[in-house]
Design goal:
- The chain is an all-alpha fold.
- It has one domain (11-75): F1FO ATP Synthase (Up-down Bundle).
- The chain contains 2 helices and no strands.
- The chain has helices at residues 10-45, 50-75.
- Helix 1 (10-45) runs antiparallel to helix 2.
- The longest helix has 36 residues, at 10-45.
Amino acid sequence: MICGGGRETPTQENMNGNIAIAGAALGGTIALGLIGYKAAEAVGRNPGASGKILVQALLSAALAEGALIITILMGK
């Protein structure tokens, strides 16, 4: 049923928050996968730089997870 005045029902508001959280979770998962893929590829090309690559990959993964956690906390 459509509500007048452009107001959303509580169910619609909850659905919008859940969609935002699902999008953030999908984006975070894709980001973590790409970080791991590119880090493994970089180590394969230059094994001597594995320490520096590992540090950068871990920092990037932490930032991606942090963004996801903030989205989940703000969405609920």
